[in-house]
Amino acid sequence: MQLCNPQTVRGLLDKYGLAPKKAFGQNFLINPMVPERIADASASFADQSKPMGVIEIGPGVGALTQYLCQNYDKVVAIEIDRGLIPLLGEALEEFDNVTVVEADFMKIDLPEFVREHFSDILDAGGTIGVCANLPYYITTPVIMKLLESYPMTEKLPFSSIVVMIQLEVARRLAAKAGSDDYGSITASIALRAKAEKLFDVSAGNFHPVPKVASAVVGIIPHSGIREVYPDAPADEDECLAFADDVNDLINLAFGQRRKTLVNALSGKYSKEKTAAALETCGIRADIRGEKLSASEFCRITDILTTK
Ligand code: SAM
After folding, report:
1. Does the beta carbon of 25 lie inside 6 Å of ligand 1?
2. Which of 115, 191, 211, 271 is the most buried (most CB within 10 A)?
3. Residues 6 or more apart whose Cβ sits within 8 Å of residue 143
4. Distances (CA, A) of 10 to 94, 132, 146, 285
5. What is the pLDDT of residues 212-270, one digit of tens each?
6. Does any ligand 1 atom lie closer than 6 A to the CB of residue 164?
7. How far is the CA of 122 from the centre of ligand 1 (A)?
8. Could you tell me the distance, in angstroms and rounded to a whole number, from the CA of residue 139 to the centre of ligand 1?
9. 133 φ, ψ to 5°?
C-alpha cells in the first residue's frame, strides 16, 4: 500500500475515526518522494555490509516507516498516539521486520530500549540509526535526549540521527560559530557529533499544512568529547566531570548572549580569571560566547577549572 498520498492518509484516518492531533505535532507527509529520500539518507550513513536496525520516533500513519522497512533489517517505531496503533498494524501488515511500540519517547529509558530491541543487531556487529519526521513541539528535547542518554566520553551507539525538523532549528544545528544561527545547542551537539543540513522540505508536503518550512538534518556521531578536545582528562570520571563543566560554560555563555564572555561567566568565575584564560588562548578579552567553537569552549573550561 502506498501510505503517503493525501487520499490514503485521509482514508486511513477516517477509517479509524481519527483526525490529526495538534497536541502531538501531527503533520503527516503526503508526498512519497520526501520519506523515500529521508530513508535513503538515513541508510546511507550505515555500514550496509552489516545488519542494520533503525529507531523511528513517531511513525504516524507509516509514511516514512514503509521506506525504512525497505532499507533496514529491523525497524522499531515508537508512537505516543494510542489511536494510531491499530491503524499502523493494518498499514504496515506487508512488512515482517517492523515492531510498533506504543510509548512516549521522552519517557523511555533509551539505553535499555536499545538493548531490548537491538541486542541481536549490535551483537552481530551491526549498526542502529535513528530516523524521524519529528513533531515540532519537542524537536530540541528529542535531539538532546538522544545525545544525553550516553556518556560524553563515548561514541553514541547510533550510525546517524536523520531527522526532519523546522528549517529554523535545522539552520541552528548546522551553524558555524559566530553566525547568527549559532546557539548553545549547536555547540552542545558539536561536542558529540557533526550536524549537517541535508535538504529543505516545503510546508505543502504535509497534511495538515504546517506554518513553517522544514529541513532534514543528519547528525553523525563522532567518538566523543576527546575528538573535539584531545587534551580532555584521560581518566574517565574526570573527563565526565570536565564535560559537565564545558556544558555549564556553554549554557552560561548563551544564557546571556549579548554579554561578553567575561561578564556572562562572572557568577561562576571571576572576571580576572576568565580574562586571563582568554589571554592564554589568544582570544580577545571582549569576545562573546557566540563566537566560540566547541573546542574553544573546552580549552577555556580546561584553563578555568585547572587549579
Ligand atoms: N512519521 C509520520 C510522517 O512523516 O508522516 C508522522 C510525523 S508527525 C510530524 C509526528 C509523529 O510523532 C506523530 O505520529 C505523533 O503522534 C508522534 N509523536 C508525538 N510526540 C511523540 C512522543 N513524545 N513520542 C513518540 N511519538 C510522538
Report:
1. yes
2. 191
3. 161, 163, 165, 173, 185, 189, 219
4. 20, 21, 32, 59
5. 999 999 999 999 999 999 999 999 999 999 999 999 999 999 988 789 999 999 999 99
6. no
7. 26
8. 11
9. -100, 95
